[in-house]
């Protein structure tokens, strides 16, 4: 298969193009694999063997790689994630340096919300545009069961602080689990609409460290939409063509409120994927579900030039597969769990 390099469009000639003509412009950067919650669908109660510090990219190394991505490879959006990205002390400094790049990329953080009450203003001042906060339940006791920590109040307060600081629109990620919180879809949506937050449901994916995911246990996009439709009038936003956005978005009761449902397993959007990922230890992943990674850290630490780093990144993306194939019986879960890849 030959890689066709587009000949028009800004940045595309030297961009991250794969063999199917997809161009990656959205970079997910994992800042740490550590976390202060223990969501049952993500990691075990005792946590994981965290990456040793020398293997983690330094703040300066992260900024260097993001600079290569933005100035040489056409990346226009940078999303910080983890693990829990707010646990990384250097986050405001990283954001500030990325905000100074030309062209300036959009920056957002996907967080569990702990610590946002203190940090929201600082992050906004540093140049952050938006946050995605994860909240799976409105019930503090359920939250405790689901995350193994009694911090519901802190997350809710963190969301309010983000909205107050202007990190808007505040987007909310929710994962529904059968028999745990699968009765909450309409209530979560009503709660988010009241506050002006944009809710997105994410189908549970086989990316947990414990390898406990079961297809038949998963609450599907179809079920979620059925439950929401019983309580709200949903109209597909636009022409329902999703473009590169993973969420199918719906206007709620005529708008302006909306809701998204990310059916990664049952309604994959691989054909329109525009993502590239950098792990906290400096590996490029061309897909959340990839089983191979490309080591940029070694090259970086061996003194590679920006051009060389850009070439390695292009090569890593060129081999991106057509689809993740989660629903395929031959699907094998990647070695790294979601918390170490960066969700
Ligand atoms: N700690 C941050 C948080 O929870 O938002 C960022 C990292 S977390 C891995 C990113 C997102 O992935 C969260 O919204 C979380 O709910 C979601 N997630 C984690 N494990 C998942 C799984 N197995 N299936 C689907 N979503 C998952
Ligand atoms: Fe931590 Fe996010 Fe995983 Fe929950 S989903 S354990 S908050 S990394």
Automatic annotation (TrEMBL):
NCBIfam families tied to this protein: moaA
One Pfam family from the record: Radical_SAM
GO molecular function per UniProt: 4 iron, 4 sulfur cluster binding; cyclic pyranopterin monophosphate synthase activity; GTP 3',8'-cyclase activity; GTP binding; metal ion binding; S-adenosyl-L-methionine binding
Assigned protein family: Belongs to the radical SAM superfamily. MoaA family.
List of residues binding [4Fe-4S] cluster 1: 35, 39, 42
Gene3D superfamilies cross-referenced by the UniProt entry: Aldolase class I
Residues reported to bind S-adenosyl-L-methionine: 41, 83, 134, 205
The record's free-text note on cofactor binding: Binds 2 [4Fe-4S] clusters. Binds 1 [4Fe-4S] cluster coordinated with 3 cysteines and an exchangeable S-adenosyl-L-methionine and 1 [4Fe-4S] cluster coordinated with 3 cysteines and the GTP-derived substrate.
Gene behind this protein: moaA
Stated name of the protein: GTP 3',8-cyclase
Catalysis: reaction(s): GTP + AH2 + S-adenosyl-L-methionine = (8S)-3',8-cyclo-7,8-dihydroguanosine 5'-triphosphate + 5'-deoxyadenosine + L-methionine + A + H(+)
SUPFAM superfamilies on file: Radical SAM enzymes (SSF102114)
Domain Radical SAM core span(s) in chain numbering: 19-237
């Amino acid at each position: 298969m030959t890689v066709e390099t587009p000949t028009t469009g800004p940045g595309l000639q030297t961009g991250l193009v794969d063999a199917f003509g997809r161009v990656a412009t959205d970079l997910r950067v994992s800042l740490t694999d550590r976390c202060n919650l223990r969501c049952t669908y993500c990691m075990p109660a005792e946590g994981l063997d965290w990456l040793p510090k020398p293997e983690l990219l330094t703040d300066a190394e992260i900024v260097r790689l993001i600079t290569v991505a933005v100035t040489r490879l056409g990346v226009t959006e940078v999303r910080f994630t983890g693990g829990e990205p707010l646990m990384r002390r250097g986050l405001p400094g990283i954001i500030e340096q990325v905000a100074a790049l030309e062209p300036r990329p959009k920056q957002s953080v996907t967080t569990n919300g702990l610590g946002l009450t203190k940090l929201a203003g600082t992050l906004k001042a540093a140049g952050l545009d938006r946050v995605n906060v994860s909240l799976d339940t409105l019930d503090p006791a359920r939250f405790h069961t689901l995350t193994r920590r009694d911090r519901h109040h802190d997350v809710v307060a963190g969301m309010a602080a983000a909205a107050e600081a202007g990190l808007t629109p505040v987007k909310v990620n929710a994962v529904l689990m059968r028999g745990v919180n699968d009765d909450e879809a309409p209530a979560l949506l009503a709660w988010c609409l009241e506050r002006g937050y944009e809710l997105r449901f994410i189908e549970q994916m086989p990316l947990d460290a414990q390898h406990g995911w079961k297809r038949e246990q998963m609450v599907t996009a179809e079920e979620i939409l059925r439950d929401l439709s019983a309580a709200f009038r949903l109209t597909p936003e636009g022409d329902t063509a999703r473009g590169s956005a993973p969420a199918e978005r719906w206007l709620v009761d005529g708008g302006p409120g909306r809701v998204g449902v990310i059916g990664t397993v049952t309604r994959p959007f691989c054909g329109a994927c525009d993502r590239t990922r950098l792990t906290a230890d400096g590996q490029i992943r061309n897909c959340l579900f990839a089983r191979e990674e490309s080591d940029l850290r070694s090259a970086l630490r061996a003194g590679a030039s920006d051009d060389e780093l850009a070439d390695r990144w292009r090569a890593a993306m060129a081999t991106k597969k057509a689809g993740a194939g989660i629903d395929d019986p031959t699907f094998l879960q990647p070695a790294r769990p979601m918390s170490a890849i960066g969700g």
